[in-house]
Specification:
Strands 5-4-3-6-7-9-8 form a 7-stranded mixed β-sheet, with helices on both faces. A 7-stranded mixed β-sheet has the order 14-13-12-15-16-18-17. Strands 1-2 form a two-stranded antiparallel sheet. It has helices at 40-52, 70-78, 91-103, 138-147, 167-177, 241-250, 268-277, 291-303, 341-352, 365-372, and strands spanning 11-19, 22-29, 60-64, 83-88, 110-113, 125-131, 152-163, 180-186, 190-196, 212-220, 223-230, 257-262, 281-288, 311-315, 326-331, 353-364, 378-386, 389-396. The two termini are 40 Å apart. It is an alpha/beta fold. It has 2 domains: 5-196, Vaccinia Virus protein VP39 (Rossmann fold); 211-396, Rossmann fold. β17 (378-386) and β18 (389-396) form a beta hairpin. The radius of gyration is 22 Å and the shape is globular. It has 10 helices and 18 strands. α1 (40-52) packs parallel to α2 and α4 (138-147) crosses α5 (167-177).
Length: 398
């Protein structure tokens, strides 16, 4: 029996799937890629692997950007002796991978909170697979494709799928890297590539480098500060309405002690707190289901003088899994379809707050209206609305 707990609220549907004579089932979520069925790209990639790769000779497998784990779980189900590792930057995806491994009666699998290949520690694999994230952007895709050969065993093979508009980029990158393309096959909206390493060595670079756009100035009221920003994280060139609203709400308040920041984005709000309240804040916990967000936020906090020992990071599927007791919580909530956050969110934050601790929550006005109908255990403080967003400070009662 698979234990879902609060994650049950994220399950949109359960689907059947057949691969290599095995019948499998998968939980899918509207908060993750392909929420209604196993997507066509995954199906095409698995078919190509079944036709071209001798799975009985595969001992080690890496699934990059694993999502709900469909590719790696199917391959391990076909050959249970495979040592499978699943990587993703999304903690909710990793939670669903664990659930789906249990659902298909696989022994515990290894999941890694990681940007692509960041946590591999030089380990080599017989098979590396990926449904490449088209939205990651060319620099990130090129970096993934360039790094993969370094992590293949001597006879190892990589098998990836990409949406057709980006197939040329993949082909050109593999050719530039000197990788040997074993298979290039068109499918419905996708192209499959199988390849192995060639003779051109890959120039090593920092794990975060491909994700970074650069350093840009941001205006916070009358002050301007430079922040490093990353691809695929919002507010890379200007502050959003929600962040500006939260800053306007807090600017005349006092923040001190241990602070939790859920969904810190690029780190604008944490950096603003560091500049405004300085040493009054003794600890920053930056938490999100997006590892890239927490990583770039830590980078910006240290660049603005916050000692590394005062920064904690938590990569979790949802805020209710955060551990600790905090004097102040800054919450930019995830609004997940089907998840009853209006009922669960304030109760969960109440348990995370120290006596008389405060919560600043900012979201779309409609969500905030429903949320604040259930503020039992909190006293209402300052409240602002602008451009369809609403920000409020609540104080823990008692």
């Amino acid at each position: 029996m698979t234990e879902l707990g609060f994650l049950e609220n994220f399950v949109h549907k359960q689907v059947d799937f057949k691969f290599a004579g095995e019948r499998l089932q998968f939980y899918l979520s509207q908060s993750l890629f392909s929420s209604f069925d196993i997507d066509d790209g995954t199906r095409l990639l698995l078919k190509s692997i079944a036709n071209q790769v001798k799975l009985d000779e595969v001992n080690t497998l890496l699934d990059i950007g694993c999502g709900v784990g469909a590719i790696g779980i199917c391959l391990k189900k076909a050959n249970p002796k495979i040592e499978a590792v699943f990587q993703d930057r999304n903690a909710l995806a990793l939670a669903f991978t664990r659930l789906n491994a249990q659902l298909n009666q696989l022994e515990p699998v290894t999941v890694q909170s990681s940007l692509a290949l960041d946590e591999s520690d030089g380990k080599q694999y017989d098979l590396i697979v990926s449904n490449l994230p088209g939205k990651a952007g060319p620099p990130v895709l090129k970096a993934i494709l360039s790094r993969i050969p370094d992590h293949l065993s001597e006879t190892g093979v990589a098998a990836v799928v990409i949406v057709k508009p980006l197939a040329q980029l993949v082909e050109e990158t593999l050719t530039e890297n000197g990788s040997e393309i074993l298979l290039q096959e068109d499918g419905k909206g996708y192209v499959i590539f199988h390849f192995r390493h060639g003779e051109t060595p890959h120039e090593p670079e920092g794990a975060l480098d491909p994700y970074l756009r650069g350093s840009f100035p941001f205006k916070f009221g009358k002050s301007t500060m430079d922040l490093i920003t990353a691809f695929n994280v919002p507010e890379f060139d200007t502050l959003g309405f929600h962040t500006n609203l939260a800053i306007n709400l807090i600017k005349n308040k006092q923040v001190q002690g241990k602070v939790l920041l859920w969904n810190p984005g690029q780190g604008h709000f944490p950096v603003y707190l560091a500049h405004k309240f300085g040493k009054a804040i003794t600890q920053y916990t930056v938490a999100s289901r997006d590892l890239l967000s927490t990583t770039v936020t830590q980078l910006n906090l240290t660049a603005h003088g916050v000692p590394q020992e005062q920064i904690r990071s938590a990569h979790l599927p949802h805020v209710l899994e955060v551990e600790g007791l905090f004097d102040f919580i800054v919450l930019f909530p995830d609004i997940d379809p089907g998840v009853p956050w209006e009922q669960a969110l304030l109760q969960g934050c109440h348990q995370l707050l120290a006596p008389k601790g405060r919560l600043l929550v900012t979201a779309k006005s409609a969500f905030m209206f429903r949320l604040l109908q259930r503020h039992r255990g909190f006293g209402m403080g300052t409240d602002k609305k602008r451009h369809g967003f609403r920000s409020a400070i609540l104080k823990k009662a008692g």
